[in-house]
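INFO worker-7 received task bundle
INFO bundle size: 2
INFO processing item 0
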Amino acid sequence: MTVIREARSDDLPAMAALLLAQADMRHARDPVFWPIAANAQATVTLALEKSLEGGEQPIWQRWLVAETDDRITGLAHVMRLPVPPIYAGRFGQPGLLREDSCVSPDADAGLRAELLAAAEEMLRADGAEVLLASVRSGEDWQSTCADAGYTPLTLYFAKSGLKEKPVAEGIRGAGEEDLQDIVARSAENRAILHRLNSFWEPHAEADARFGAWMQRSLSLEDRDMLIGGSGYIIAQPASPLHFPAAHEAGAVGAIDDFYHTDLADSTSLQNEGEAAIALLDAGESTLVARGRDAAFVVCPAAWVAKARMLEAAGYRPELIWMIKQ
């Protein structure tokens, strides 16, 4: 018999073993994009200890375990996701099922669905009105979430083996004098996002908030802000929100803020995407210069033109954020 319950501190060794085994599987699939942290065992143990100790945490999170005959056979990791300041967030903080949720190889059929249902119940009880699930593309969690009514919201396109390329004419590092143009392009980007899915409803003060963040970003030494033609791109290190604790998140680049007018028609590339691709190449080159060999680019699932451009540039969907509204 399998019982699903909230995790306890005495579950930690079994939980860590499952998480490390899952990390090894991701690493085997793509060792460059999923590098194992040098101190993975200690890092995973510490992350679990912090999340299980309760009390005030920067982000609300909980773990559920599936226990079968006194053995931990599955995990569900849930959190409440803070709403970025540029979005309205009218439904409050979404509930998120993290991609490190897992089951053991010999787990009972249907255990993922049971864990998902328990995770949803926990998130709803905490007040989540919108539910998200982060799953690896093509894996069983994707079909489990689809069967439960989730649909793709955001694709995280991955690429390993980045190469430095010549920077096209007209692409350069952004300065304070470029902030007004960057904010204007960001507003165009946000309008497209909102048309694609109401989840991305902009905040009434989005322009001012984004502008203030860009002003601060100019002083952050871990990222590169580039402009070129009618677009901008920001390349920076990935964060622990995107990678489970067993992996070295900072070894991978992240490109989220990226827009060019070549992508303005969400269904069809303009000018064959030539300028947008050149801007992406330049962003990749900054990551290579900082010693990163892999990156992901965030792309709404419904933005067909952007997805096709990324696939043509050698990217593949690695993670999918799915939504249940």
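INFO item 0 finished
INFO processing item 1
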Amino acid sequence: MRSRRVRFSAGVSAHMTEQDIDIKTILDRAGGYSPSCLPFIRDGLAHTVEAVHGRTEMELMELEDEHRHVTGQQLCIGLRDHAVRQYGMLAKAVLNKWGIYETRDFGQIIFAMVDAGLMRKTDEDTLEDFDGVYDFDEAFAEPAMGNGLEPAGS
């Protein structure tokens, strides 16, 4: 049995075997998303935390959870920004291929990961925080692609 390191939120990491974690089952329960989206979600979270807090994920690992937290809205914007940086004009098409069509889909994935113990949330965080943060057609239109998160302290 292969062991793999799973690290999804700023500060949450664990050594698990494939028996311990079945990503496909987690994503199927969330709404049938492709497992291919998980590295993107993980990296997009790290990008968002760094943009919001002005520190790298490694620097934030030493801080308390509340000093690493990002809101659902911040995460949606950060994931959009990360998608544009990674995939350019194909960002929306790539997200759609994974089954992600609206910001609530990001929330469904995040909360499925929270339920599986792969991420953490605060008591104030809700799935509704991800509702209607932006319209995908507008957010991934060419003129809108430059409106991402600014790193803290810029």
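INFO item 1 finished
INFO post-check item 1: Residues 83 and 91 are 5 Å apart (CA to CA).
INFO post-check item 1: The helical segments are 23-30, 37-53, 57-60, 72-87, 91-97, 103-115, 136-139.
INFO worker-7 idle
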